[in-house]
Amino acid sequence: MCGILCSVVDNDHSFNISTAQKGILKNRGPDVQDEMVIDYGFGKIFFAGCVLWQQGESVQKQPVVEDDFIFLFNGDIYNTSKPESISDTTWLAERLAECRCEEQNILKMLKRLEGPHCLVIYDKRDQILYFSRDALGRNSLIIERIPNGFQLLSTSHFENEKISLELPPLGLYRIKLNDLTSCVLHPWQHLNNYATQLVRNLDLAIGWKTTVESPILPDWILNCKLQFSYNFYHFPYVKNNEDLYKNLIAQSEIKETLSIIHTLLSDSIKNRVKNTAPLCRLCLQQLNISLACRHAKLCILFSGGIDCTILALLANQYVPVNEPIELINVAFESVKGQNISEKLWDVPDRITSLVSVNELKQLCPERRWNLLEVNIRF
After folding, report:
1. 2 is an active site residue
2. Are strands 69-75 and 117-123 parallel, antiparallel or unpaired?
3. DSSP 8-state secondary structure symbol assigned to residue 310
4. H/E segment holding residue 157
């Protein structure tokens, strides 16, 4: 959840990031911050990166400057062969260096990326700005028209005289900084009527004209490898619920499907846990890099339902046994809270979380499970 910002302004104006804007970006990336200004002849570009350290043996400062490009990134990349010692940002920066700022190489690289992310790439050699969100739009990237140019940022502070909207997650956008009235889009896939309307809305808000060029067509979007086609009603019905369950999971098709899902989910959790930063916030602030951190470095949003409980149980396999796992449960104040004698937070999600955490303690008694109760008042 890093905070990134890229502002493009013309030569007749200067850009100053407000204290309020800096504050909300730092809230997203409290571990390390950096910024820089580039003069590109027709104007200036301001870059700011606020990093939340979640991966790699050391924190990767942003913006990343490598050869002829500057890079901002927020997100997670799945199914890479990168070593656990480096973050996704570092790995992507190395891949970008191999692209040598050639657009076709950048498109080939993006075609491989799976996972929630947004990114900004500046080609200093050709003065071209690239930016995108993943095809499902899972990570936010706001685009704003400001009086002296435009900007891209993770989260925005309300101010007058600017138009803000979420960048449509349609593909890779390209702007040549000598002409801010023209934009090129390489879509993830061919645009339908709805996506075409999103492009029109973007053009109207930002004040440029977008030209759509060749699509990127990532394989993971077009080719679904997992196809399960069976009907539960085709299996013999048994009145007893326990017999029905045993009968279903004994079917070869269902047993194979469950095995595949378990493997995929376990591998996904393993990759996330193994790539977690080695220090918690407390040890990072105290610079105890030479000491082993035994504080919790993994938190799971925990309603107590079957899904988050399974995630916690699987994560238990990969977190060192001497480290706690934190479970964050959010409860909204009960509407019955007018009577002070009543339990304001005795709501369904809190009740189920208490039941489920007790079950986790029984299944994994060697683990310290920290249930963090977050109470929200209306």
Report:
1. yes
2. antiparallel
3. H
4. none
Residue of 2, 6, 101, 308 with catalytic role = 2
Structure tokens at 147: 């009086």
- Average pLDDT value over all residues in the chain: 86
pLDDT, greater one: 176 or 344: 176
CA distance 70 to 47: 9
Angstrom distance (rounded) from CA 209 to CA 131: 16
Q: Residues near 377 by Cβ (< 8 Å), separated by ≥ 6?
A: 333
User: Which pair of tokens denotes residue 333?
Assistant: 């104040």
Longest dimension (CA), the chain: 78
Output the CA torsion 349→350→352→353 (10° steps): 110
Question: Is the pTM for the entire model greater than 0.90?
Answer: no
How far is Cα 347 from Cα 332, in angstroms, rounded to an integer? 8
CATH code for the domain defined by 3-219: 3.60.20.10
What is the residue extent of each domain of the chain?
3-219, 276-376
CA distances (Å), origin 221, targets 134, 194, 278, 332: 11, 18, 33, 38
